[in-house]
Write a structure and sequence with these properties.
Number of helices of chain A: 10
CATH class of chain B: Alpha Beta
CATH superfamily of chain B: P-loop containing nucleotide triphosphate hydrolases
Number of strands of chain A: 11
Radius of gyration of chain A: 19 Å
Strand content of chain B: 25-35%
Strand order of the largest sheet of chain A: 7-8-9-3-10-11
Strand order of the largest sheet of chain B: 6-7-8-3-9-10
Oligomer: heterodimer
Largest interface: A-B, 35 and 34 residues
Distance between the termini of chain B: 52 Å
Chain lengths: ~280, ~250
């Protein structure tokens, strides 16, 4: 890539001190992100969500975050105060969470929740915020924005809820969107519709997108590049289309353990974990 | 082994009728693994529960193990069908040890040699003797699902019903559980029905597959036809395309 990356991370370490010792959730992770689609794949507990949250300063206070470099469009994220983070989050970087049921405010209409972002970050007045919200709902392909504006989250289906979340995160037009399992709670046919919306937005607005997921098939078909995480480390970085020809034994084992819709296998390969991978 | 003819399940909610399953018919042969796939709300779990008698249903015929299934199942009926549920965190009693959990079905059905059979069941699903006196919270998700499978098989039922048995598990753990199920159905000569939203999982484990949509059975196809895309319904085609990942429309 010729242009300067949006995000540069070098030797990121995240650890949580606990009663029984320190848990190292992310271990010397380094990567860069341009205006592209980057996938982060790993099993539960591999540190992918923790890494995503650390980029937005959303980890609990007990977390210890260190890195050689962690910068976003020239801003040193390591030196950010809570005030600085508030200026960055929403306006310049944003995160879509896994489950709309738990991430939307149940006692506020979705229209108000989305407008809030516009009022806060774009300094819109109420009329302008409403207009922007309706336009955004339309952009995420909600058929009747006026109707949905006045609905409460429990009145939405899973797919609609996820679109509302995306609308809320994108209304302030951030340059970086981190999507943490944005489609895991959705049916396959709806999954692809949501991905298509994200894809269009990346292309039309030149956004950088980090897609965190455990689903290899989805990530390899959607992203440009993929990072594979194992026990807090990035064990491999690979072009998404080359995932079938991965070099790291863990990546290869994951690919072989995934049931295939097209190839008949008598038995699935299981993952034998090698302590060497942690060195 | 299992015959379902014109089965419907209707729930009444707030004065409205919800037809969770409507006019579903299929048969499952002895020793076969039958798959049911569909999206959320398609009625696939309801159908499985209706076969087990866990929800009331109407049908022109519902036969289990060659016998018409009664509206109220007797204890002998119940032991023929055993269930493995989706969430291994919710389906095991948190305050009972693995030993208690596996002992219970044997005690209910007044079986003998309980100690030996519990030990054998633990070994059978690939757990170790040290797991026997652990509580569910001391086990991983995969280990819990193994306990749930051991509990289902300890009465040696001819039929095993699996409702999304690997959906809550990581890919590597899912592979272990699917391999375990494939091995056990051989050694126990099981007839089983597997419900899943994941076409690849169903194609991997099943011989024939029913596609459900909005409570109705769209079609029944063989696993080979599913793999090659040789299907007749548009909905099935759409489901297969969606399962193969994201396709970018060229701009």
């Amino acid at each position: 890539m010729s242009e300067a990356p949006l995000l540069t991370v070098e030797d990121l370490e995240v650890s949580f001190p606990g009663r029984t010792g320190v848990t190292r959730a992310v271990r010397n992770a380094s990567f860069t992100l341009g205006r592209e689609r980057l996938g982060i794949v790993g099993e539960s507990g591999s540190g992918k969500t923790t890494m995503g949250r650390s980029l937005l300063g959303l980890l609990p206070r007990t977390a210890q975050v260190t890195a050689k470099t962690m910068s976003y469009e020239g801003t040193d994220l390591l030196a950010c105060s809570e005030r600085d983070w508030q200026k960055l989050r929403g306006r310049r970087m944003s995160m879509v969470m896994q489950d709309p049921k738990y991430s939307l405010n149940p006692v506020q209409t979705v229209g108000r929740q989305i407008s809030e972002t516009a009022l806060l970050h774009l300094k819109s007045d109420h009329k302008d915020a409403r207009r922007r919200t309706l336009a955004m709902l339309e952009a995420v392909q909600i058929r009747d924005p006026e109707l949905v504006y006045g609905l409460y989250p429990h009145q939405l289906s899973g797919g609609m809820g996820q679109r509302v979340m995306i609308a809320m995160m994108l209304i302030a037009e951030p340059d970086l969107l981190i999507a943490d399992e944005p489609t895991s709670a959705l049916d396959v046919t709806v999954q692809n519709e949501v991905l298509r919306i994200l894809d269009d937005l990346v292309r039309d607005r030149g956004m950088g997108l980090i897609l965190i997921s455990h689903n290899l098939t989805m990530v390899s078909s959607f992203c440009d590049r993929v990072l594979i995480m194992y026990a807090g480390r990035i064990v491999e970085e690979i072009a998404a289309r080359d995932l079938q020809h991965a070099r790291h034994p863990y990546t290869r084992a994951l690919v072989a353990a995934t049931p295939s819709l097209t190839v008949r296998r008598a038995e699935l390969a299981t993952v034998t974990r090698d302590p060497e991978w942690l060195k | 082994m299992i015959r379902v003819e014109n089965l419907s399940v209707i729930f009444h909610a707030g004065g409205r009728e919800v037809r969770a399953a409507e006019g579903v018919s299929f048969t499952v042969a002895k020793g076969e693994t039958f798959g049911i796939v569909g999206e959320s709300g398609s009625g696939k779990s309801t159908l499985l529960r209706a076969i087990a008698g866990l929800v009331p249903s109407t049908s022109t015929a519902l036969e289990v193990d060659g016998q018409p299934a009664a509206r109220r199942r007797s204890r002998a009926d119940r032991r023929k069908l055993q269930f493995v549920f989706q969430d291994p965190y919710a389906s095991l009693h948190p305050r009972k040890t693995v030993d208690d959990i596996l002992r219970e079905p044997l005690e209910i059905h007044r079986e003998g040699e309980i100690d030996e059979r519990v030990a054998a069941a633990i070994a059978d699903v690939g757990l170790l003797p040290i797991h026997r006196f652990r509580y569910p919270h001391q086990l991983s998700g995969g280990q819990r699902q193994r306990v749930a499978i051991a509990r289902a098989l300890i009465l040696r039922p001819p039929i095993l019903l699996l409702d999304e048995p690997t959906s809550a598990l990581d890919v590597s753990v899912q592979a272990e559980i699917l391999n375990l199920l494939a091995r056990l159905r051989q050694s126990y000569s099981l007839t089983s029905i597997l419900v899943s939203h994941d076409l690849a999982v169903v194609a991997h484990l099943c011989d024939r597959i029913a596609i459900m949509q909005l409570g109705r059975l769209v079609e029944v196809i063989s696993a080979d036809n599913l793999r090659t895309g040789n299907v007749s319904a548009d909905y099935t085609r759409k489901l297969i395309a969606a399962s193969q990942g994201f396709t970018r429309v060229p701009a």
